[in-house]
């Protein structure tokens, strides 16, 4: 059992390491001003440091695997014959290094498209099929987004068979929903240009992961002069590769383009269990749950209740949808349910299983209280760990089962300083109050570099709750809080602690308050290893935990 009071005569012991508090800057007031630079700064401040991995690891563990018929040496020879490469192994379109080229940056790097198209042409002949992606350089317009996303990459790889849906068709504009890989270019290899590329590529990665519920991961490429770095992000980590010189190491560039251009949608980061649909002129999502017999159960969303959990690159990526089970007839008010889509730490128990453990523990000591206890918690209709291609969908799988090598160096990411006068759109739902803590106190940051892998899961709840923040009458607020206290009392009877109690985690449902968000709940008898990440919401956190010392 973890100590709840300090041992006698102990000298300021520190709190358990899995309760180190950490607040996310993307939940802070500056991020939600909508200013693009404040947004980028918050994302970078949350990342702080990212692992740097070898090119070989990036190829083996992160890039989609090469298709069996693709042979890099053979492709290189074919590129010489087609005059994409010279006899001495130089890219024909690049007569000099970009930094020595007097032409503008977009014109200089436009030559990459000729290289990409040449490689794709040769591989298509071998495979007898077209590529999944095509390279778009010097885009004439900012890609479309469901939010006010004003960022425009220097180039991107675009799905040939688009997954996006246009509500109001606007000519030939592309959509972020069809972009798995973005590029940023600089002619100069200076430190300022390198940092600028990093800031832009990280924002693009984050935009893909935040804006599109259908994504599990995303890729990026930055080039400064001839030096290329590869980027990847998922809900557990963001990584960057060591540099390679695409003038000298032509095989690695060929490998990169072959790997990405001919990968399937799952390998490029899309989730096949959720599909974008157009309903009544609005974009909604069909979410599939496995069935023991027959076809999957499909729920269709009607709105996003909350998605601020997807603001950060790393984290649970929680989205809450209002939905109904898809059927022939139109849904009625009784048909609506709530779907929680999130990524929990892989070694943590799913919320519905925690609930059952709590009820089982109550049944052992006070069996006549179980039915009453259930009134103070949400009712689970369906729950599952998401499966993709018959395998559990987790972040270690996105790394092909190969974790970040021990001792990988960390790279500092640099935040921007000045407001940009450009905007982005903040998230939906009640934003957690934790970031306000950052304005009042200096909370210790979590140690970066350690990877806590995530498991993708979904839960369907029967109740549509109303957060306390939205209640208009004081008596309703007090009753809801009182019911929440009753729910906590039942948890303690069962020998469990919630560890993330806040006003945002108590909902009013049909006149009763209910405790929610049990992902951090823990049995007092648990022997599981501690995490070095915070549990709890900062404004509701015990002062001993915040200060990392007993009073």
Name the poorly predicted regions.
1-21, 433-449
Look at the helices and sheets and give the structural class: alpha+beta
Oligomer: single chain
Number of helices: 13
Distance between the termini: 20 Å
Query: What is the helical fraction, as a range of percent?
Result: 25-40%
Shape: elongated
Strand % is 15-25%
**Overall mean confidence score, pLDDT:** 85
How many beta-strand runs? Answer: 23
Largest sheet: 9 strands, mixed
Rg: 25 Å
What does this structure look like?
The protein contains 13 helices and 23 strands. By secondary structure, it is an alpha+beta fold. The strands form 5 sheets. Strands 1, 2, 3, 4, 5, 6, 7, 8 and 17 form a 9-stranded mixed beta sheet that branches. The protein has a 7-stranded antiparallel beta sheet with strand order 9-10-11-12-13-18-14, with no helix packed on it. Helix 5 (about 110-125) crosses helix 7. The chain starts with about 35 loop residues before the first helix and ends with a helix.
Label this structure with key terms.
23 strands; alpha+beta; seven-stranded antiparallel sheet; 22% strand; 551 residues; nine-stranded mixed sheet; 13 helices
Summed up:
The protein has 551 residues and is of the alpha+beta class. The protein is built from 13 helices and 23 strands.
Task: Reconstruct the topology from this structure.
Blueprint: H1 36-47, E1 49-53, H2 55-62, H3 72-81, H4 105-109, H5 111-127, E2 133-137, E3 155-159, E4 181-186, H6 191-211, E5 217-224, E6 227-234, E7 238-241, E8 244-245, H7 250-261, E9 274-279, E10 282-289, E11 297-306, E12 319-325, E13 336-345, H8 351-365, H9 370-374, E14 380-385, E15 387-388, E16 391-392, H10 395-398, E17 410-412, H11 436-440, E18 454-461, E19 466-467, H12 474-493, E20 496-497, E21 506-509, E22 512-515, E23 522-523, H13 543-547
Helix pairs in contact: 3-7, 5-7
């Amino acid at each position: 059992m973890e100590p709840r009071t300090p041992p006698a005569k102990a000298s300021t012991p520190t709190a358990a390491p899995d309760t180190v508090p950490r607040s996310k800057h993307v939940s802070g007031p500056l991020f939600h001003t909508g200013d693009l630079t404040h947004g980028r700064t918050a994302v970078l401040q949350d990342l702080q440091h990212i692992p740097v991995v070898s090119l070989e690891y990036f190829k083996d563990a992160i890039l989609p695997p090469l298709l069996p018929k693709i042979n890099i040496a053979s492709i290189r020879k074919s590129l010489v014959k087609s005059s994409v490469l010279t006899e001495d192994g130089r890219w024909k379109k690049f007569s000099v290094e970009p930094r020595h080229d007097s032409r503008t940056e977009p014109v200089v790097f436009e030559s990459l498209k000729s290289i990409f198209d040449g490689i794709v042409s040769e591989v298509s002949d071998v495979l007898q099929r077209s590529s999944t992606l095509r390279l778009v350089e010097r885009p004439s317009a900012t890609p479309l987004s469901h939010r006010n996303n004003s960022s425009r990459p220097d180039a991107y790889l675009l799905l040939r068979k688009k997954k996006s849906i246009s509500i109001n068709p606007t000519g030939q504009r592309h959509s972020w929903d069809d972009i798995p890989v973005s590029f940023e270019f600089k002619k100069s290899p200076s430190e300022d240009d390198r940092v600028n590329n990093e800031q832009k590529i990280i924002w693009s990665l984050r935009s893909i992961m935040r804006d599109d519920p259908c994504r599990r991961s995303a890729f990026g490429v930055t080039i400064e002069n001839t030096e290329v770095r590869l980027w990847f992000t998922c809900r557990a980590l963001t990584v960057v590769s060591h540099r390679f010189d695409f003038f000298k190491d032509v095989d690695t560039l060929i490998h990169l383009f072959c790997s990405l251009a001919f990968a399937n949608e799952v390998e490029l980061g899309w989730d096949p269990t959720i599909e974008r649909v157009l309903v009544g002129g609005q974009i909604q999502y069909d979410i599939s749950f496995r069935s023991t017999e027959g076809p999957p159960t499909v729920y269709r969303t009607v709105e996003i209740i909350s998605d601020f959990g997807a603001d950060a690159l790393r984290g649970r990526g929680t989205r809450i949808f209002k939905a109904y089970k898809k059927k022939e007839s139109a849904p009625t008010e009784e048909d609506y349910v709530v779907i929680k889509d999130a990524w929990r730490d892989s070694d943590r128990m799913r919320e519905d299983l925690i609930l059952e453990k709590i009820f089982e523990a109550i049944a052992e000591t006070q069996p006549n209280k179980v039915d009453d206890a259930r009134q103070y918690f949400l009712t689970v209709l369906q729950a599952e760990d998401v499966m993709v291609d018959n395998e559990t969908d987790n972040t270690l799988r996105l790394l092909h089962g190969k974790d970040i090598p021990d001792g990988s160096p960390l790279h500092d990411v640099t935040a921007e300083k000045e407001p940009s006068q450009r905007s982005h759109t903040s998230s939906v739902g009640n934003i957690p109050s934790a970031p306000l803590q950052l304005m009042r106190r200096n909370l210790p940051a979590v140690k970066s570099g350690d990877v806590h892998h995530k498991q993708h899961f979904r839960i369907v709840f029967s109740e549509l709750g109303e957060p306390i923040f939205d209640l208009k009458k004081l008596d309703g607020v007090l009753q809801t809080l009182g019911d929440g206290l009753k729910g906590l009392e039942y948890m303690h009877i069962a020998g469990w602690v919630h560890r993330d109690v806040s006003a945002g985690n108590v909902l009013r449902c049909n006149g009763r308050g209910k405790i929610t968000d049990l992902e951090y709940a823990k049995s007092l008898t648990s022997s599981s290893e501690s995490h070095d990440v915070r549990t709890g919401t900062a404004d509701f956190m015990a002062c001993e935990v915040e200060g990392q010392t007993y009073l």
